Amino acid sequence: MSTFKAPKGTYDLIPPESAKYLAVREAIAAPLRNSGYGYIETPGFENVELFARGVGESTDIVTKEMYAFETKGGDKLALRPEGTASVLRAALEANLHKAGNLPVKLWYSGSYYRYERPQKGRYRHFSQVGAEAIGAEDPALDAELIILADQAYRSLGLRNFRILLNSLGDKECRPVYRAALQDFLRGLNLDEDTLRRAEINPLRILDDKRDDVQKQLVGAPLLRDYLCDACKAYHEEVRELITAAGVSFEDDPKLVRGLDYYTRTTFEFIHDGLGSQSAVGGGGRYDGLSEMIGGPALPSVGWALGVDRTVLALEAEGATLELPASTSVFAVPLGEEARRVLFGVVTALRKAGVAADFSYGAKGLKGAMKNANRSGARYTIVAGERDLAEGVVQLKDMESGEQTAVPVDGIVAALESRLG
Predict the structure, then answer these.
(1) Cβ–Cβ < 8 Å for 15, 324
(2) Please, which of 130, 193, 268, 295 could form a disulfide with 282 given CB 3.0 to 4.6 Å?
(3) How far apart are CA 51 and CA 289, in angstroms?
(4) What are the DSSP E strand ranges found in 190-321?
């Protein structure tokens, strides 16, 4: 047994469980690829200032959870705690916003890192699929992304999730609300650290999970009462477009999310079967983030959905994913000549797109057939010297137990026909 274990708060994806994660990633990505989003991949670490500026210096992510380090060359880097800032940085660096029509529509999949207290549904290493639409201010884009996420979840068979929706206003109306909220917070019995955060970004206090804080927030001013006419009209159009698409949502005037860059539309996907870690994904509009990290004005919107939590949500509902068979055909050779012939058959099957595996090592028939059963293959090909002398192999249906002699030169076509 190895003396090494996965670091605390992390996990290994191991077959057959890992197939669920691949299926979830594919299901989330499928509607994005079908809607004009191109794939982007960024490094696992970035300049620490990218996240300090973009995510927000007062956020828990930057102050408490980010894995930051200094290289031998003196560069200050951080493992990426989220995807949006990295994707926007990459798009700006590549001048994608200058290459053609806006918005630039991108999707990504990868691992992210936060130093958090590990618990079910909250890990120090986690996986997300995300989407960003960069460079356009249009309620239809906000609605599109919410609808695509809803479509992805429903394609997986997930049903018991809720969509929470809010507007955080913009640079015109949010300062007025910010001042009103700060006045309210200053009158509460809050600890010094919380009061200090309230002076930097008071909206973050609304997201505080502590019961003693939440009890004091009853009666706090709500942003919806301070929205300017433009933000009200924008938010109402988002709501109308989502409703017209048949997507249900709940208005949540206290929803702020945990990142500083959000403006106007913000949303969260909640699954009540996950306990305290109920958010399976979320996102919103971030019209000022590009300027925060040194780029031009590029109003944008996006989301990230947690692969880990989506798998947990599916398990909570008892939903069964339709996973492709890892092996459809298993070949069992008896003798050296059969090994040569059946290895060629397996290679031909794979080229034809049939998932096929082979009995490796010097195993007898009994041991090889045990491997065939464990593989989950629908069919097993068995061949010995006598079979090859007659120019055939034995094709066994592992469900019915029926065995048929099939010509060697016709076995690939026969299996293609049977497997459809």
Answers:
(1) no
(2) 268
(3) 11
(4) 250-251, 263-271, 279-285, 300-306
